[in-house]
Amino acid sequence: MTEVKLNRRLSERVQNIKPSGIRRFFDLASKMDNIISLGVGEPDFVTPWNVREASISSLERGFTAYTANAGLLELRKEITNYMSKRFSVDYNPETEALVTVGASEAIDIGMRAILNEGDEVIIVEPSFVSYVPLVQMAGGVAVSIGTIKEDQFKVSADQIEAAITPKTKALMLCFPNNPTGATMNGKEMQEIADLAERYDLLVFSDEIYAELSYDEDHVSFASLPNMKERTILISGFSKSFAMTGWRLGFVLAPPDLLAAMLKLHQYSLMCAPSMAQYGALEALKSGMDDIERMKQSYKQRRNYIVKSFGEIGLPCHTPGGAFYAFPSIEKTGLTSEEFAERLLLEERVAVVPGHVFGEGGEGHIRCSYATSMDNLEQSVERIGRFLKKIK
Ligand code: PMP
């Protein structure tokens, strides 16, 4: 390992965390013109008007104070109703639900609530880039295991079992997955649930893309028999409700875990922004048609991108959910970093190199198809030209 010179003004824990590999690309891309970006992981829809209006109205009515630490009770009730209706999980809004500042905060306080120094969390990768640093910031050790395209980026119980040690405290799952778009069905999840029970593991289930499951209904991990008591279920409004900038998420968990998370949340954040909570309330009350409309639009774009990538010689498994394609670039002989950098500089298409998502990510690029059809068509043309050139 290379010797790192530590700055005594900063904590060793922070200095040991690697900067995000995505940043460099966005910095590079932001200095260039005429870029088509398939880089960012957020909806291209603006939040539906009635949701914005509800938030504006809360301000007009002067609702500008702190809410309850756990979030407006009315909102928590809507969240638990919604989760029960949509995903067959039943939670008590008073003791098992917490409104957070994005799913990001939910992951952070979840890790901080359960980890002692040196406890291990198995992270199924390729994955969202925050999991590993958040485990490390909480004093834990992230143990990465990779998934591969040959398995449609699903993880097996055997793979997880091989990574379990006496220090394993929890497992991090995210299906539908960022960046692979992989989904897991009930039977596949059940095998992991059996393992969690056998080894007494806690399971983080990041289900922020649950509504964006195109081919099969999403199965919530907490809905499997006996899993609710060991699951920290994370979700939010950013993706399916097109509300990334509102910074609103939620976590559902058994009362002891939730109380610990609430303690962290109340000291570091007090509560999620009130105007965002009023918007979210409206989103849950009337947003189901909007979700469906956006989902159908993403599905259409998914079908287009997978087919078109195949036609230009960029093999891509069919992602069952989220809004990312994760094609293989192995045949090009370039690393994902080289591919993404050259594609950006030579054809002005921004994608994310797969290696930033951890184990199993190298040999792939992440392309977000949450952008206009026009942009998608143009990027397919540009990527096709690039592939011909590097042949
Ligand atoms: N989990 C996953 C898998 C994500 O992709 C993201 C956003 N990219 C988040 C959590 C964070 O979402 P939020 O905006 O709610 O913090």
UniProtKB/TrEMBL annotation:
Keywords: Aminotransferase, Pyridoxal phosphate, Transferase
Superkingdom of source: Bacteria
EC code: 2.6.1.-
Residues annotated as domain Aminotransferase class I/classII large: 34-383
Keyword Transmembrane helix set for record: no
Annotated GO MF terms: transaminase activity
InterPro entries noted in UniProt: Aminotransferase_I/II_large, AspAT/PAT-like, NHTrfase_class1_PyrdxlP-BS, PyrdxlP-dep_Trfase, PyrdxlP-dep_Trfase_major, PyrdxlP-dep_Trfase_small
Calcium recorded as keyword: no
Cofactor annotation: pyridoxal 5'-phosphate
Enzyme class: transferase
Family, similarity comment: Belongs to the class-I pyridoxal-phosphate-dependent aminotransferase family.
PANTHER family found in the cross-reference section: ASPARTATE AMINOTRANSFERASE, ASPARTATE AMINOTRANSFERASE-RELATED
Classification via NCBIfam families: PRK07682.1
Annotated protein name in UniProt: Aminotransferase
Taxon lineage: Bacteria, Bacillati, Bacillota, Bacilli, Bacillales
